[in-house]
Amino acid sequence: MTDHPILFSAPMVRAILDGSKTQTRRVLKPQPIGHTAWQDDDTGRWWVSGHGEGGDTLLSLRYAPGDRLWVREAWNVFALSSDGDESWPVPSIPAVDPRNDPEMRRAYCLDYPVASLAGTDGGKGPWRSSIHMPRWASRITLAVEAVRVERLHDISEGDAIAEGVTRVRDCCYVIRGFDYDLSGLCHTSAITPFGKYWTHVHGAEAWDANPWVSVTTFRRVEA
User: What is the fold of 3-71+138-221?
Assistant: First the structure.
């Protein structure tokens, strides 16, 4: 078992927290040249068959079943000044800045005197990039249950839902915090909002490129 950091955007963090996201797809780097992915039954290793284009390629996947992933997300650190000793991380989602929401202000004790460990931003502390979140500040741990390799376009309706797509009513699929919440637009297929979000994150040509991806299935654990 190995612990790995993993980055997730705000909508995907929301989906993990509400239990709707149990898969993540990551682009393989470098991209293998081939047509078919297969798993060796004896070793569990994944290969891509080249069919005369250089032979089979053994893939080095970052995650394996049994590994744990600790989630990096946008975060903030506050130090409660009631006794001057206690401090703890308060990871949150940039779209829901607790300073602008009365209920979250109470939840995060922001109406009490607080001081940032960074000592900036008027004593409240700046939002910090997910890439800079240390292990001790992470609030979400995921246990890897399965890993496979496939082309991006091989995603099924069920897998798109496992990626965090939600059905809000009959024939209406969305990703919370993206697209639907911003424009009111929903889709009859779960794959459509997933593809739009993939393009949003990876760039205009990312979906059409249909890259080889690793598909990691996980469950959230208390850790």
Answer: 2.30.130
pLDDT for the residue 136:
81
Residues in the chain, pLDDT under 50: 79-96, 107-123
pLDDT for 135 equals: 86
User: 45: closest CA among 170, 166, 149?
Assistant: 149
Q: Tell me how many degrees the CA angle 129-135-136 measures, rounded to the nearest 5.
A: 105
Map out the domains of the chain as residue ranges: 3-71+138-221, 75-128
pLDDT (0 to 100) of residue 178: 81
Among 194, 223, 201, 210, which Cα is nearest to 15's? 194
Q: In this predicted structure, what is the pLDDT of residue 126? A: 64
Entry field: residues in the chain:
223
